[in-house]
Write the structure tokens for this entry.
Amino acid sequence: MTTETINIKKSRSAYDDAKRRFLANRAAVAALFILITIIILAICAPIFSKYGFDEIDWNAFSAPPSLASGHLFGTDTSGRDLFVRTMVGARLSMSLALLATFVALLIGVTYGAIAGLLGGYVDQLMMRIVDVLYALPFMFIVILLTVIFGKHIWLIFMGVGAVEWLTMARIVRSQTMALKEREFIEAAHAIGASKSRILIRHIIPNLLGIVIVYATLTVPQVIMAESFLSFLGLGVQEPLTSWGVLIKEGATEIETSKWLLIYPGLFLATTLFSLNYIGDGLRDAFDPRGRE
Amino acid sequence: MIAFIIRRLIFMVPTLFVVIAVTFMLMHAAPGGPFDREQQLTPEAEAELNIHYGLNKPLVSQFTQYLGGVLHGDFGPSFRYKEYSVRDLIGQGLPVSAQLGIQALMLALIFGISIGLYAGYNRNKFSDSIIMGFAMIGIAVPNFVVAPMLALVFAVWLHWLPVSGLDAPGAMILPTISLVLPQIAAVARLTRGSVIEVLQQNYIRTARAKAMPTHVILLRHALKPSLMPIVSYLGPAAANLLTGSVVIEVIFGLPGIGRYFVQGALNRDYTLVLGVIIVYATLLIVLNLLADLIYSWLDPRLRMS
């Protein structure tokens, strides 16, 4: 009975520690709040707004932001409400980022864990392949993907995930190799725990922290990739909208309607800003080397 | 050292081969041909075009033929700009892109290192927090947001600089600034971090104990070891600058290879996209190699082994 309570406490304490450290990091917590606010806005605002994202307000073409008309961020050249469009764009930008990150996570963790666990020649070969792929220019491969997949935006971003897994694989591999040598794994061996039990109970839970950290840092990279592509006209296409599409429209209309660039740009930058701070905060919280 | 260089040079070959093979195969696996968007072609005309560009041959022989051409610097004809070969287009664009990239890299290093050194020395003071706040903004705000705003202020409102094109004097100023800002921020953050670490070393304490002036401590003792992370960042920095210059060239209408690349992608100009990717990949691999060489040359511990 007593041993059991101690066990439970110990297996939770690593994460409690991380949580405590994360919450002590004020910048990261603030960033988390900002991000949650943006997500809630993105989900709810289009539902409650009186304007649809592709609805034309015939009384307001290129109208500046105003409270009176209800166009908080103004309207674009076709008279569509920019606030709703920014929020709908946020949905697409973030969903694509989550999709790509999920794909990257799946490939990266599997690949890295296999290389790390097996070691030897298999590991050597697998990591050489990663080295070769690392030398490829990421954004250019993504542009290549758009040429191949054309207008199938979801396929393009599954492809983005399939090229973004390299860092994840490297980190998971080195972490797995380090874990293999640790005393508690040896101890688990000594008391006769099976290989699969060690993998599931000891290795994977200890990888989780670092995986979450790098997933958090992958999301802003993909959001950036999405806006980059859409800005160049290679990514999301009308009638769909995303932050990149809105920024592109804003950049062409900047002389007459500054708000078309400023608001989507602000939301994009704030989101990237928050995700980077959260990622840094999580890394400090989870990174074992960071412990004093 | 020489063995290291040779090993790395040999390693370049399979990497480039993989790049060329993968891009080539992907391009040809793509649905839709390069002539899809022209006015309804008769099947005969399309077959003739395919024969003209050798697209009717088996894939493997097309590939070996292409590879042979690339080895001689021949990237084939452009599918869109009929009167030009891909080599001509790259030859026209490369000097513009190279100038933009080299200027940006220099500025990023000069300003980034100075700012980082200053912030690191004044760690946790007010000026440091302000600088690092700006650096974070510089990293988070993409250059395709910054560039149009700079163009609005300095070109449209103040008329100090041209909006786009290459012909007017000062045409490179706005593109270079837009391209370099995020890199200055990144270099400054890196430098600050490593300066802080170096300043805690014992030999710095010794120098302080000997009452050496601050500028001597910073420039003579702290600067060189602090630069190591910057050297290893050179590879990724080059990649970021190349990527950034694509969008900057589009915004400011500069005729560099980045703009050709985007137009090629939009027009499904396969040979052009392939050619530019090969050039970019080669550049990146060579730059990474250079960065590694500088790194091992600077770090005596690596030189020994």
In short: The mean pLDDT of chain A is 81. The radius of gyration of chain A is 23 Å. Chain A touches chain B through 37 residues (CB under 8 Å). Residues 82-118 of chain A form the longest helix (37 residues).
